[in-house]
Amino acid sequence: MFTFNHRTDTPIEPVFHSHSYYEVYYFHEGKCNYLIGDQIYTLSPGDLIIMYGMTLHCAKIDPAYPYIRSIIHFDPSLLRPYLEPPHAINVLEPFQQFKNYRLCLRGEDKEEAERILSLMHKHQERHDEIGDSRRMLAFVDLLHFVYERCLQPLRQQREFPSEKEKAVQDVIALLETTFTEDLHMDQLQKTLHLSKSYLAKIFKEVTGVTIFEYVYRKRINEARILFLLHPGMTVTEACFRLGFKHLAHFSRLFKQMTGLSPDQFKKQARNNNLQEKEAGFSEWKR
């Protein structure tokens, strides 16, 4: 699985999601807060984010500005030929070690990253086997570029542009560990020492969703991950493990957010897993 979208400018709605493949995200232009797990990144042109996918993430953009980004989704198994001798460098180590990580590329680094992305796009536009092969080689070069810069230790702690973003960060950090519990605004107010009306206001302003929309999306995305990683888990077990009190409520939200009922999702995931195993066996026989 490999998809590459270069300098996409389509407007989006903020939707928290996760996936089982790796992602390289490059921010060209716009005004955007990017949420990954319990982290909020206020992006600047030249910011590159690597994600291992399974962490809930979402871009919250200001529609008054053009939102231009390049996004690569890929299955790490595609890199297997490049990770074996004589290609000995594990360019996937930043994904494996950091899970999610931002690089602030400026100057020559920014120019080099954009040059590689443009080269990938040029090869992709050929729509032939040689173009696809050269695009993959350019992508491997991009991963080497990222690998080299991710190994450098962080020299300064990330700063928030305002106390508002810091407060929302604190809310998300708390929700990351308590999202399966029976949450109340009074509880958040007591823990964070901020009024619940203020918390509700700034959370929606920064993320684009309410606190409880975030919690429900987090729970549903975690349910998807549970079903993918544990095919034998029942819908009822996932429902109560993730903090829902009623199976009907869980099933309704799951279908609303994924387009499938929990049982349909489990069946589709099971079929996809079988297809991947069959494809892997066929590739191995070659």
Provide a count of the helices.
Answer: 11
**Quick one: CATH class of the largest domain?**
Mainly Beta
The largest pleated sheet is described as: 5 strands, antiparallel
Mean pLDDT: 85
- Tally of separate domains: 3
N-to-C series of helices and strands: EEEEEEEHHEHHHHHHHHH
What fraction, in percent, of the residue positions are helical? Answer: 40-55%
- Given the C-alpha coordinates, what overall shape results? globular
| CATH homologous superfamily caption of the largest domain | Regulatory protein AraC
Instruction: Report the radius of gyration as a whole number of Å.
Output: 20 Å
Distance between the termini: 19 Å
In percent terms, what proportion of residues is strand? 15-25%
List low-confidence stretches: 153-158, 276-286
Helix and strand content put the structural class at alpha+beta
CATH topology type of the largest domain: Jelly Rolls
| Order of adjacent strands in the largest pleated sheet | 1-7-2-5-8
Let me know the number of strands.
8
Commentary on this structure:
The protein has 3 domains: 149 residues, Regulatory protein AraC (Jelly Rolls), CATH 2.60.120; 49 residues; 77 residues, Orthogonal Bundle (Arc Repressor Mutant, subunit A). It has 11 helices and 8 strands. The strands form 2 sheets. Strands 1-7-2-5-8 form a 5-stranded antiparallel β-sheet. It has a 3-stranded antiparallel β-sheet with strand order 4-3-6, with helices on one face. α3 runs antiparallel to α4 and α5 packs across α7. The C terminus is likely disordered. Pfam families: AraC_binding, HTH_18. It comes from Cohnella yongneupensis.
